[in-house]
Automatic annotation (TrEMBL):
<protein>
    <recommendedName>
        <fullName>DUF3347 domain-containing protein</fullName>
    </recommendedName>
</protein>
<keyword id="KW-0732">Signal</keyword>
<feature type="signal peptide">
    <location>
        <begin position="1"/>
        <end position="18"/>
    </location>
</feature>
Length: 124
């Protein structure tokens, strides 16, 4: 029993020190004059912009707009979680493309896919 308690305490001590080392790394300082604060859009605002672009290209019902808003909000949350991993981002892009394809009819999907800039904007 004593060995088990010692093992758990060592495990948590090592984990806590690793977390402390991550938090202590200083962030790179940027000159204040060079930084121009662009308004950051929330995931919901980005998703609504994607839905508006899609709706301008092919008309969507209110129900489809709500579905796509939820899909694109999820996309942006997943992309934030992916960090710098290009493989993860490519997988997310593929999944979003498949979900768009499943949500609309084949003719509309081919129309969207033929518009390369819109398709890239929606999936990436």
């Amino acid at each position: 029993m004593k060995n088990l308690i010692i093992a758990f305490s060592l495990f948590f001590a090592v984990g806590a020190s690793a977390q402390a080392k991550k938090q202590l790394t200083p962030a790179k300082a940027t000159p204040k004059a060079a930084v121009v604060a662009a308004p950051k859009l929330t995931n919901l605002e980005k998703a609504q912009k994607n839905v508006a672009d899609l709706n301008a290209f092919i008309p969507l019902s209110a129900e489809k707009q709500a579905t796509f808003t939820e899909l694109f909000t999820t996309k942006y949350k997943m992309l934030e979680g992916a960090g710098d991993s290009a493989d993860r981002k490519q997988i997310i892009s593929y999944q979003i493309a498949r979900k768009i394809e499943a949500s609309i009819d084949a003719e509309s999907f081919e129309k969207i896919k033929s518009n390369e800039t819109l398709f890239q904007k929606l999936t990436n």
